[in-house]
Amino acid sequence: CSSLHPGVQMSLTLFEPRYQMLVREAMAGRKASELRGKLLKEPRPRFIFCHKRTMVDGSTVFMVEITRCRMMEAGRAQIMINPIKKVKMLKAGLRPGVSNHLMDAQIRRFE
Q: Which pTM value belongs to this model?
């Protein structure tokens, strides 16, 4: 996660099924107009993000918010994320019944 810094936005193009699922979940309930790349209204969807291949209990990761989301063909998405704060992952594990390595985590904010 060393390439992330609070307040410095990063653009991501997501095409892997696990990331498509993440974006669908994060954007659930949003209006279709919000899926065209415009600035999202508050509250914005948030998730844990890290570049590390394997996240383990105790890892330092970032809580990020999606500031823009453009859904594309075949479920791909282009999103802009804004790192909000560093958090410590207390417990992480693969989501039961999901074969695409999407993880759920319990976190604690750094003071």
A: 0.80
